[in-house]
Structure formats: C-alpha cells, structure tokens
Amino acid sequence: MSPATELDDPRLAAWRDDTPGVANRVHLNNAGAALPPRPVVRAVVAHLEREAAIGGYEAADEAAGQVHDAYAAVAALLGAEPRNIAMVENATVGFNQALAAFDFQPGDEIVTSRNDYISNQLAYLSLSRRLGVVVRRAADLPEGGVDPESVRELLQSRRARLLAITWIPTNSGLVQPVEALGALAAAAGVPYLIDACQAVGQMPIDVRRLRCDFLSATARKFLRGPRGIGFLYVSDEALARDMYPLHLDMRGGHWRLADEFELAPDARRFENWEFAYALVLGLGAAARYASTIGLGEIERRARALAARLRHGLGDLPGVRLLDHGRELAAIVTAEVPGWHAPELVQALRARGVNTSAAMREYAVIDMDGKRAATALRLSPTYYNTTDELDAALQALRSLRR
To answer: What is the DSSP letter of 342?
Structure first.
C-alpha cells in the first residue's frame, strides 16, 4: 500500500479540483489575489453572458433575487444583516466612504496605528493637509503590534473623533488586537473603523464582538472572489446616527423636493447606483463557498501552512523573517539577501511560483523600523499543500545569490 498523502484528504482534493489554476503553478499570492474557485467563475461569466444576451439593465432586473442573496451571503460572513452591507468597488473605496461620513473640523484627531495600510495612511494625511485633522499613531509593543494601552490613552483626548485600524497589514503577517481595541473605543465613545481586507475570508469574523461602526474589505484576497468589487459594513448604530458619505449618489439618497433629500434607510446609502452586477454575484458566490468550508477550518489550515513556511525560510542562509507580533496570520514576509524583491518575484514566477513584493513606500514606518527596503511576501491559504511550500523553498534555494 502506498503511503498516504495530503491529497488523500477528500476535502483538500475537492478544493483543488475546484481551483484549476493549481494544476500549473504554485500560487502563494493569496494576500494579493487568490485563485477563484469554479462557482465564482461561473457566477461572473454567466451574468456577463446574460447581459450580452438580453441587455445590462434587463439582466440586472432578472438577477434581483441573486443580488439579494449575495448581500445576505456577505452579511453572514460577518454576523450581520443584509441591511448593513454596501457593495463598493474595492476596500479603499469602502474605507474612504466611511471616512467621508465624518464632519471633521481642524484639530479633530484620528487615532490609528503605525502599521495601517498605505492608502489609509495617505487618506489620513490628506485630511490633515486639507482639513487640519491631527493624525495620532499609537505606539507599538516591543514584540510588534499596536499597544492597546497607548490607544486607550490617545482615545481619552477630547478631540478624538475616530479610531481607525488595519486588522492585518498588507506588508506582514501581523494580526492587530481589533477586538480589544473595539472595547476601548466603545468605552471612550469614539467611533471605530476597521480595514479587514486581509482578514475577510481568512478567519471567522463577528462584528458584534468587534464593536465596530464600519468595516471594509475586498473580494479578491483570501475570500477568493473576483477583482474590482468589495464591501463596507455599516453598523445599525451608525445608520441610526444618520451617518452618510459627503458625496451622496442617487443610490444613497432620494431627492424629494428641490432643496431636500432623504437618506436610504440602510447601508446602501454608501453605494453608487452603477456597479458591476456580475462581480457582485461573484462576491456572493465566494462568500457562500467560504462559509461552506468554514472560516475556522480555513484559518487553521492557512496559519499552519504559514508557520511551516516561516520555519522553512528561517532555515535558508541569510534570509531574514520580518513578521513581528504576538499573533501572526497567513502572510509571510522575508528579506532575501542579494535580491530586490520585485525582481525575485519575477524570477520565482518564471519557475511557476506566484508571490508578491512588499516595498518600503507601502509601509514606511514599519519597513524603516525593520531596516528593510523590500521584502518577499508569500501568502498560502487552505487549498495550498506542503508539497507546494517545499517547491517554493526549493525555487528560492536555486535562486541564491
């Protein structure tokens, strides 16, 4: 009898059968854009074909029930209701729509971390330059990750208007203590915005435990949805406070009289009327697929693969691991001697291994603290195998300089 292999597990075999791309390459760029499973591809393509057959508006009307189901599937991932979900073009649009719901005044403070995502940091700095908003970055713990005590102290300021945190920064595997921070924000009476781009699809999420007012995410990463679509969660409390973005669209407001409008009653006030219905249906299919597998199982397997990968990279001469923090997710970053990371990404891709590069300008504070200009980023997920990790490590050995 031949020895058992990973692929003898019928679940893993089924996941990989649903993922045609694994047949010809090792995909370790799931933090960038994961390989979508067949049900996601079918949902997107079928709607595009229907648009071609009967017209875009007509296909959207015909798919109204499926669109509603997509909202419900996304909401279920978060422990929310469909009324709390706005479909947006990407996570950054969702994040900025949430920021645009605040009437910031000069001297108002945004409390954030030193590891927040580059687009979020740029948004804070833009608000600072244009409106006089003050950006307060909490200190880090010695082992990495934001210091909750520092956050608590900053939230005591009478000018603190928002706590905004990136759950898992794009440039490392750090997992921020978002649940504990939510408790601090609630105690201080400060609204809370989470960028969950790398968390959605990688781990279980319950917005009630997070106690956040807003949470933004994309479809294309660990959730395995299509590119070009994301969503924003808006809490019932934020809706009840009549929070809405500065630039309302006809989707979010009803024009009742010449000088009067009425808000949409749910999170769709944060949407635009025109969006890609095929991608919305693909996002719904991705959410259902992840829920069927179970986010707990996805997290367990992805993190185990990431831990194995860190161990293997740590054994390579000269390689420096850059992931710091009490808790680490399925993003692995390392500095490889002799290589500018974007060039290494291309060299690995030529060998059938997909990775990505983290650059200093993506995370200036964190990368300067680590004294790194670039880093190789590898991000496994549940459909990857240990054989694929070994193949990636062997490819790196062959590329030593």
So the answer is: H
pLDDT at 104: 98
> Domain 41-292: which topology?
Aspartate Aminotransferase; domain 2 (3.40.640)
pTM, entire model: 0.96
pLDDT band for position 2 (cuts 50, 70, 90) = very low
Domain ranges, ordered by start, for the chain = 7-28+294-398, 41-292
Nearest to 389 by CA among 301, 300, 295: 301
pLDDT digits (tens, 9 = 90+) for 58-101: 999 999 999 999 999 999 999 999 999 999 999 999 999 999 99
Q: CA dist 350 to 25, 125, 135, 140, 389, Å? A: 10, 38, 42, 38, 16
* The amino acid at 23: A
- Stated as kind and residue range, the H or E segment containing 150 is helix 148-155
pLDDT in tens, 339-371: 999 999 999 999 999 999 999 999 999 999 999
Topology classification of domain 7-28+294-398 = Aspartate Aminotransferase, domain 1 (3.90.1150)
Question: What is the H or E stretch that residue 345 is in?
Answer: helix 341-350
Mean pLDDT, residues 186-196 taken together: 98
Distance of alpha carbon 182 from alpha carbon 193, whole angstroms: 9
**What is the DSSP secondary-structure string of 21-55?**
GGGT-EE-BTTT-PPPPHHHHHHHHHHHHHHHHH-
Q: Can you tell me whether residue 231 is helix, strand or coil?
A: strand
For tokens 């949407």, what's the residue? 271
